[in-house]
Amino acid sequence: MKIRVLGAAAGGGLPQWNCHCRNCSDARRGAAGVLPRTQSSIAVSSDGRRWVLFNASPDLRSQTESLTRSVSRSGTDPGSAGTGVPPATPRASVFDAVFLTDAEIDHTAGLLLLREGGWLVLYATAFVHGALRQNGLLRTLAAYLQIDWREVPLDGAALELRDRAGDRLGLEVTAFAVAGDPPLYHQGNGTSPAGHTIGVRVTGANEAAGLVYVPGTGDVDDALLSSVGAGDMLLLDGTFWADDELAGMGISQRRALDMGHLPIGGPNGSLTRLRDISASRRAYIHLNNTNPVLREGSPERRAVEAAGWEVAYDGMELDV
Length: 320
Fold this sequence. Notes:
Blueprint: E1 2-7, H1 22-28, E2 41-45, E3 51-54, H2 60-73, E4 95-99, H3 105-108, E5 119-124, H4 126-134, H5 137-142, E6 146-151, E7 159-162, E8 168-177, E9 198-204, E10 210-214, H6 222-227, E11 233-237, H7 245-248, H8 270-273, E12 281-285, H9 299-306, E13 310-311, E14 317-319
Parallel strand pairs: 3-4, 4-5, 5-6, 10-11, 11-12, 12-13
Antiparallel strand pairs: 1-2, 1-14, 2-3, 7-8, 8-9, 9-10
């Protein structure tokens, strides 16, 4: 199974268009050790030819171009990727399906960029599907293409991913609910409905090891811990280093936990609480532009690396 990180940053990317924090300023001017990053999204394939997009970021156009170039270099014609269209056809998508882990803007706005595709196989929980109907995104998309929504269950059963024609894509996904909050725009009744934020374990057909992808979570609970096996790759929410990160910079009074993100650092942060995690490889993803781990050589980056973690970057390629 092949995994490509299309975007490693949280909403806004690095640099964020209106931010002049140290990280954004240095990334904007091309300073060494602060790599620019687009907004969070990954692509997964069982064979390097047919790809499933996990979360559709607002930066999807450039991310798709990057993936298409990579696939072309490997000797595969991206025009043949599961569309049912001959490779010579002028328009065809490199993605056979899209899988959403939440309904946040930075994970769904990119769906609008897929409107020219004619069709969209969309895997999402009932809550995410309902939220995107409520905010008008799916209604807008439906004017341009056919949407084939396939509900993601939270009963612990493995879901076999299939393309538009029903052909197997060689990937199985087991979804589990994680702590967090629904999107700010969601008009609910004050409760946190099931399925608003999920993590997933992705495996190739008949493969034991897999990828555990949790780009947003406000806690480390039993469901998350039990999903990670010894041979697995873990991509985990690394949005903030500290709970009061934004307040300390005078950006916002909202804390990381208020926004449904468990910070990396501190005695109750993910770095401490997951020090004994059994994953064979682990990396932080969905990194906010203010996070000091984005700076190579920073004390926070050294602490992460000393604990055996990596910091994800755009174009990072992983094999499981």
